[in-house]
Specification:
single chain, DNA polymerase, domain 1, mainly alpha
């Protein structure tokens, strides 16, 4: 990455480290493509997703289940497209 990250971006990248290798790979691709362009609403939604247990987050990221909160949909779509 050629630009320096803000503290918030560094925090999100650190919190994105997960216990499941598959989640680590998915989130790494997502962050590499979108971290610097996330809106404030997307950052809040992503932060909410990071609160979930790995398996629940993986189910949402893989589209195996839908989110209870519609505000999560835009960031989940970006994750799935990454």
């Amino acid at each position: 990455m050629t630009t320096s990250m803000t503290r918030e971006q560094e925090r999100l990248r650190w919190r994105s480290r997960r216990g499941l290798l598959e989640m680590d790979l998915i989130l790494q691709r997502f962050l590499d493509q979108h971290l610097t362009t996330l809106t404030a609403a997307e950052v809040r939604a992503y932060d909410a997703l990071l609160q979930l247990p790995d398996n629940d987050f993986l189910d949402l990221a893989m589209g195996r289940k839908g989110p209870d909160d519609a505000a999560l949909v835009p960031v989940l779509e970006k994750i799935r497209q990454s």
